[in-house]
Protein: Beta-glucosidase
Organism: Dysgonomonas alginatilytica
Amino acid sequence: MRYLLTCSLLSLSLFTMAQKDSRIPPAKDLIIYQLPKNSIYHKGWIDFNKNGKMDVYEDPSATIDARIEDLLSQMNVDEKTCQMVTLYGYKRVLADDLPTPEWKNKLWKDGMGAIDEHLNGFQQWGLPPSDNPFVWPASRHAWALNEVQRFFIEETRLGIPTDFTNEGIRGVESYMATNFPTQLGLGHTWNRDLINKVGYITGREGRLLGYTNIYAPILDVGRDQRWGRYEEVYGESPYLVAELGVAMTKGLQKDYQVASTAKHYIAYSNNKGGREGMARVDPQMSPREVENIHVYPWKRVIKEAGLLGAMSAYNDYDGFPIQSSYYWLTTVLRKEMGFKGYVVSDSDAVEYLHSKHGTSADMKESVRQSVEAGLNVRCTFRSPDSYVLPLRELIHEGGISMETIDDRVRDILRVKFLVGLFDAPYQIDLKAADKEVNSLENQQIALQASRESLVLLKNENNTLPLSKDKVKTISICGPNANDASYALTHYGPLAVEVSSVLDGITAKVGKNTEILYTLGCDLVDANWPESEILPSPLTTDEQAEIDKAVANALKSDVAIVVLGGNNRTCGENKSRSSLDLPGRQLNLLQAVQATGKPVVLIMINGRPNSINWADKYVPAILEAWYPGSQGGKAIADVLFGDYNPGGKLTVTFPKTVGQIPFNFPVKPASQVDGGRSVGMQGNMSRVNGALYPFGYGLSYTTFKYSDLMISPSVITPKQEVTVRCKITNTGDRDGDEVVQLYTRDIISSVTTYEKNLRGFERVHLKAGETKEVSFTLYPRDFELLNLDNNWVIEPGDFRIMIGASSEDIRLKDILTVAPYGEQTVLKKIAGVNESVSMVLDNNNNTEWDGVNGDYLTFVMEENTQPDRIGIYWKAIEHPAAFEIQLSSGGGQFLTVFKGDIKETEKLSTYSFPKTIASDVRIVITSGKASISEVKLENVKR
């Protein structure tokens, strides 16, 4: 396979270069890093400023604040400004892999805030990993970074160590390292403990390689499925992003092994039309949505995990670039959220102030605005001189005060002290890097992550799992069947061995099963993406390759089609104008399905795709996202029943791009639209509803929910509440269920979301086993941003819902938040008048009386589609007639049923066409009648 061949050739190249490079230390020196005999190194401390005594900043027993102030008092302007910039590493900006004598004449002779991606193997998009001999093996790489660190400690006046930064959203970016699914895949595990392990492994491997600051996690919340970077978000729920972000950050920063720098602060992930590149501007959101959706994860990760880094985003919001916003970088981030780390710019965010946003005249003014706003470190693919020199001019001219500069440098030094750079600046145990980085033990965690990220979208007639005993011939096709390039792109490990779907299935079935493979089609066609709006017939070659796939399918017991995308169709700067399958992929799928053989569709992609045809006609669909280097094995485990899939969607699948914006959470009735009947005589004008909703996912077993308990059921605004329920595996296979808890503020001073995710647990249950699941709801879970823009908890009723997805609610009840001192809280059916209450109380002795023209109106839950109603007529005066009317919004009621009232003292059920309804009304149209009970599902309570 191409990617394995590339890795092998690169490894050989590295070995050959190592033999020729005299700078490479012998193997015996790559076990424990040996510091040279230098008078600055003492037992327990380092004389960084070479003055022969232990200064406060050199004293490990002193407080961090004291050490910062002592060092800051010794720094001159040149040294301070050099701390405020990043030098991009080898072959990005820095021309040298190891220090050279010329470094003493470079800007960084006075130190450097950070060196980014140095010798991590990445060159640039589209190029293979670097063949520099210090890229690999791990021990040699760590040795090389130590040698670079020695320059800053031994050759600069104050010896301030540099912060080695690197990417790490799916494993630390290195030639080799443990390779995890992309963050979108990790989100679909819904497993905090697992994400914490991923974070710890990423941070541990990063530190062993010599890095001290990892750019992860992504705290962007998904809002537009067209966006190229959808593959990098955990999901669409700010609560889920916060929960997994906390877990990841705590794992990364365990024992301060590295600093975690989260991306991208703030309001970054909802660009207009999903656009990217230079168009990363103008997110289309209200201020309240920014607070509820985008600020929420940052507040919690900073408070609960002590996040040490924040990357300021390119975009503006409401006309104000984030990079130059004192409000966002200081007032909100530091004063309101309590952030104590340092802010680093995202690439050209500073330059964009004058080159794109037009809010600055030139680079010098952009620097001034950024520093005044709260930027600590400029990081981009440009010489650090381009930032430091105008910064020094500003200081000299009085354009920026030394008080401001000192504040910015304090934050940088604080992070360096916290991660131990002044106490343990070198990675001493070089052999540990060879032993632990991408170890078999860590790969098992990666395999678990790959398995848990998989989501079963459809499994008609139990097509899956397949039986190795019964399936003797398998046809496999599709552009992603034998391709694993998605696992080897930027922001993660670059050259690890990857298991493709074809690899995984081949290894799983062994020699007793015949596998027939052909490509079927390319990922895109020759005119893509223009072919999405100007389709053309299949070429002769395209048809011939599809015909091969069909011929193979006809010879097989089951056909496996592997479609989706890769870094050609998704990723940074890869937003789309459609969510349909690109290229000829649908043609291939339709042709294989037409053979009549059982078909399994596997989707490998970085965003939800609108696979409507597949959902209707293909019996089994497995969503794999970008499942990491262990993906092929994980998928094969699921296909053949060795692992029962339990992932659930953290994103919404629209049926068409024309529904966007369509994501979770939603405002009440925001997805209600139009009629429900198609055709020339129908009333439907657009496609409605999700293809697959947030939280959805199937299993090879089934689960029953029962015994909901809310304790206490009445609380004050400062109390916690416990919600419990029982989950039973009612099938014959062990499996995982992701139990989801949602809340709804029933009556509020401002409009709130119809469902707020406020709890989840991934529970493993053996066949027949029952477990109790417990959730704790905190005061923050009931807050809203009121009309005065204050976060408050308004007393009243909250609906508590537990389910298998956002649209599959199994249990629900009411929790009441009462003001202090209120002894009795009367719980009523929310929004229902006393007359309606009487016919919903399960008591035949209470009744409502109506005469001609009187009516009862029932307010329905959002997106309800009633098709029947039960009425217990208590008494009538003949002749009596009635109508059932529905409203789908706007106050207009349409009659869906007319009839005479014929029988009393029994429940009569009336059916009508299923129609979405906000209200259901029973109208007495003649005579007089009494109703004691009404049976109607999904009445708002």
